Amino acid sequence: FNNAILTENIIVTSAAGVIIPGTKVWDVTGKILTFDPTSNLSAATPYLIVISGVVDIYSQVLPISVKKFTTA
User: pLDDT-derived band of residue 1, with 50, 70 and 90 as boundaries?
Assistant: First the structure.
C-alpha cells in the first residue's frame, strides 16, 4: 500500500469460498502485509484474496477488490 493502513479485513479463500486460516503481519511501515497460511496451500489450485475494509491513516477507503491466483 502507498500509505500506512489502520484497518483491514483482508482474507484468503479457496475458489469455493472456504477461508484459509493463517496469520497476518504488517511490516514496521504499516504498508506491507504478509499472510502466512497455517498449512501449505495445495498445488495447482486457485485461491482468492478478498481485499475489503482497508482504511489508511488519512481515512481513505480502498474499494473492495478480489484477486485470483493459482499455486504452482
Answer: very high
